[in-house]
């Protein structure tokens, strides 16, 4: 269970910055290939997770183009490791964060950014002082949803990182393993209960934190 | 001097085209006036740099902000144009004070401008500093937005219909603050509006726009006396704007005496003005009657000798007269029947009569909006 939390947490931490960037580019950018990027970002949502895991395996495996480089140059191996499980989870939850951030970006009035511009704020300054604080609730709720979903990622993890107890065996993998073992029903039930509790807690937390933050930003109760 | 020339075509079939050019002296308040959709806000965006026009040149006191021919485009964050938007656009996550200081903190070191305390007290926003914009009324928001723009040490203040989103009481609340700012800071101000009373109250110069083009640009007084601009002369509240000096009050009679080049006017008491103050009144064309003989025994307070300078048909059964009084020209709307009955003709001496009551309560001698 601690492993599951670690994997989910890492996946969110690593997935967050590129997801915010992708959401920003998709919401505000006007460039050729924008809908292609949009489709690419959403791919893990509509593809079977096993396929995502397999693609990762092909790319980041020891004989894959990226995996080979990582291994040769940095000695980093992703397949069949905790880091690999995190990567698979991050890829799967990426679209969830992007969607949440993009939704909140759409509620930010571009006029506010224009106003900041006339007051002398450059692009990074504007993003940090105006846009980012205003989309913080969206980022937070996206992160928590991704975290909760990451706890339950199965297909991509088992394909890419396998099911190694103590290394890549996350909660759902453990449940699966337990149901496959004779007499493992009790363990499976216990793990399922934990999983359910975590999921519900995550969703409640997301809702609560989102509201708190929105109120702090002076947008809710008028 | 502010020189503006902007050419911009919005994409799409029948796309709106802006083709506007004017020059106006600085400092001073220049109103950009015209009906909704005439392109005045677009013009303002181009001057602020928020819109990159297809072509054109914008220069302020010799400094070039935009010159498409020379490939110059100063980005808005370096133009130092303070902008007051119609919808205030305060940052909702920051307190009023942080909002006010946002621009000041980013202004270049050596830039001059009004101080924080001065602006806060001038706009009466000291009690609001700790609040969030969400907890402000529309009028308060607009005052804070004005303060924020003033505090970014602007070289030019751009106001995009700052009062248009407010109801009448809120407008009346904010307008005096705008007048104060105009009076206190010697800043070039470009003020976009479609309300003539705001022009009368605030502007020195007027840029008249229609359908993306500038029809005329001159002082408010000069344009108000022209009969060839239907956008002005065709209004219910059309009339000559006179720059007057307060000569004195007659509190007993409830009247204030105003002098203008060519005569004096008696208007309802304006206790807030002191002798020597300059103020502008608009003498509406529909409030003036003419008499061919010196009138006696009439209630009208202002009976001014004048000469008919021109006479033109106006709408179906009316005529627009231009009456000359010394240096001043008044516009006067009469029925065509009256022209015939009195045999009015150019060069004829007449008496122009204006009731004092026509000048209404202070500041309110213009109809709402338009």
Strand fraction of chain B: 35-45%
How many DSSP helices of chain B?
Answer: 9
What is the overall number of helices of chain A?
A: 10
The most extensive interface between chains reads:
A-B, 22 and 29 residues
User: What strand order characterises the main sheet of chain B?
Assistant: 7-8-9-3-10-11
Question: How many strands in all of chain B?
Answer: 20
Mean pLDDT of chain A: 85
Number of separate structural domains of chain B:
2
- The CA-CA distance between the termini of chain B, in Å, is 30 Å
Q: What is the string of helix and strand elements of chain A?
A: HHHHHHHHHH
**Major beta sheet of chain A, specifics?**
none
CATH architecture of chain A: Orthogonal Bundle
Structural class of chain B: alpha+beta
CATH homologous superfamily placement of chain A:
MetI-like
Low-confidence stretches of chain B: 362-370
What shape does the CA trace of chain B take?
globular
Structural class of chain A: mainly alpha
What is the CATH third-level topology name of chain A?
Answer: MetI-like fold
Radius of gyration of chain B: 23 Å
What's the number of structural domains of chain A?
1
Distance between the termini of chain A: 42 Å
């Amino acid at each position: 269970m601690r492993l599951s939390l670690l994997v989910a947490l890492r996946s969110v931490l690593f997935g967050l910055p590129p997801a915010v960037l992708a959401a920003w580019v998709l919401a505000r950018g006007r460039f050729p290939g924008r809908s292609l990027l949009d489709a690419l970002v959403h791919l893990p949502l509509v593809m079977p997770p096993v396929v995502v895991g397999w693609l990762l395996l092909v790319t980041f495996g020891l004989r894959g183009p990226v995996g080979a480089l990582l291994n040769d140059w940095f000695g980093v191996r992703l397949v069949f490791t905790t880091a690999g499980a995190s990567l698979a989870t991050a890829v799967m939850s990426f679209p969830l964060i992007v969607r949440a951030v993009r939704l909140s970006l759409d509620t930010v009035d571009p006029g506010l950014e224009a106003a900041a511009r006339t007051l002398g704020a450059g692009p990074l300054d504007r993003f940090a002082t105006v846009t980012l604080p205003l989309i913080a609730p969206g980022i937070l709720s996206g992160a928590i949803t991704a975290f909760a979903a990451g706890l339950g990622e199965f297909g991509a993890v088992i394909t890419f990182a396998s099911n190694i107890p103590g290394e890549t065996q996350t909660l759902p993998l453990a449940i699966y393993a337990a149901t496959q073992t004779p007499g493992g029903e009790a363990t499976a039930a216990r793990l399922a209960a934990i999983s359910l509790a975590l999921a519900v807690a995550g969703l409640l937390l997301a809702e609560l934190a989102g509201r708190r933050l929105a109120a702090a930003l002076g947008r809710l109760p008028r | 001097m502010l020189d503006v020339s902007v050419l911009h075509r919005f994409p799409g079939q029948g796309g709106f085209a802006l083709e506007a050019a004017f020059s106006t002296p600085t400092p001073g308040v220049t109103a950009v006036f015209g009906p909704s959709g005439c392109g005045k806000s677009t013009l303002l965006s181009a001057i602020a740099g928020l819109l990159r026009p297809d072509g054109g040149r914008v220069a302020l006191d010799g400094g070039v902000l935009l010159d498409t021919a020379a490939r110059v485009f100063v980005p808005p964050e370096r133009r130092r144009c303070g902008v007051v938007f119609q919808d205030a656009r305060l940052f909702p996550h920051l307190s009023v004070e942080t909002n006010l200081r946002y621009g000041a903190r980013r202004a270049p070191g050596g830039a001059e401008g009004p101080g924080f305390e001065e602006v806060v007290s001038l706009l009466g926003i000291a009690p609001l500093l700790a609040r969030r914009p969400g907890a402000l009324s529309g009028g308060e928001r607009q005052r804070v937005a004005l303060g924020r723009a003033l505090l970014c040490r602007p070289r030019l203040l751009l106001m995009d219909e700052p009062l248009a989103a407010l109801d009448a009481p809120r407008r009346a609340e904010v307008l005096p603050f705008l007048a104060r700012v105009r009076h206190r800071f010697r800043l070039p101000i470009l003020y976009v509006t479609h309300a003539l009373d705001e022009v009368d109250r605030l502007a020195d110069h007027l840029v008249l726009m229609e359908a993306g083009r500038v029809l005329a640009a001159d002082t408010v007084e000069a344009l108000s006396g022209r009969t060839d601009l239907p956008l002005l002369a065709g209004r219910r509240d059309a009339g000559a704007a006179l720059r007057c000096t307060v000569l004195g009050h007659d509190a007993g009679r409830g009247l204030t005496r105003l002098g203008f080049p060519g005569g004096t006017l008696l208007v309802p008491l304006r206790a807030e003005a002191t002798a020597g103050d300059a103020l502008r009144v608009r003498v509406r064309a529909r409030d003036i009657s003419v008499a061919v003989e010196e009138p006696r025994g009439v209630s009208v307070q202002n009976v001014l000798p004048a000469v008919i300078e021109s006479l033109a048909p106006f709408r179906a059964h009316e005529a627009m007269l231009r009456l000359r009084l010394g240096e001043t020209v008044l516009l006067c709307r009469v029925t065509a029947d009256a022209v015939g009955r009195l045999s009015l003709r150019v060069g004829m001496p007449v008496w122009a009569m204006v009731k004092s009551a026509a000048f209404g309560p202070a500041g309110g001698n213009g109809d709402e909006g338009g």
